[in-house]
Amino acid sequence: MPELPEVETTRRGIEPWLVGRRIERVIVREWRLRWRVPQKLPAAVRGATIRAVGRRAKYLLIGSDAGTLICHLGMSGSLRVMPADAPPFAHDHVDLVLDSGRCLRFNDPRRFGCLLFTTKEPSRHRLLSKLAAEPLSDEFDADTLWKLARGRTASIKSFIMDSRVVVGVGNIYASEALFRAGIRPGLAAGRVSRQRMAALVEAIRCVLTDAIEVGGTTLRDYVDPAGTPGYFGTRLLVYERRGKPCRRCRTPIRRFTQGSRSTYWCPRCQR
Ligand SMILES: [Zn+2]
Fold this sequence. Notes:
four-stranded antiparallel sheet; elongated; alpha+beta
């Protein structure tokens, strides 16, 4: 599943091809995504010039004169820039045809992604208005996190994966950040000290920034907009390393299941 770094990598990959370009037309081959593509979308953005490509949590925001396209990659979606006349393959659901002779093509085999449209301020859209802080913004800091954790008995791992606490920390990055911060994933969020919370904030920023720099993970069938697989997988310290020696202390990495997700950790380095 594309996580925040993959979405940010996509944003950076498509941005230079889109900004300043006019949308000549929109071809919708499949309307039934997670939510139906709005009927009025093709006519609404036709002829509009793209002004910016932004991101909020895992939503990509393609801003134009006419309004903002809101795109989520779901479980299996990807966006590629390619020649507009390239023949579509299976699951190539939507093309945004640009005046450059290229198109932005949305492919999504499982159709859990979406393509929506708003003429209002996108941050007020129902999907975005209740989202918590961005992990790479200044809003996300140890004090806020520590205050939110007061009295919480949920594990620290599920706490940092809760999009009402901070957005975009998926399963892989939660495991990796907790290892780097030396915090046991099953520890109650309310029992993590302010000082350790500061280490965790730093670790979350680090794992996400590192992953963005190398273009996302190798996991599942993710490919970046240029069609090359990411390779953050080679840098993972605990994720999917069950039984292998900890890269720090050689203790075998353990795995347990937490709310149907796999958690990986080192029993010696994380307390
Ligand atoms: Zn260790």
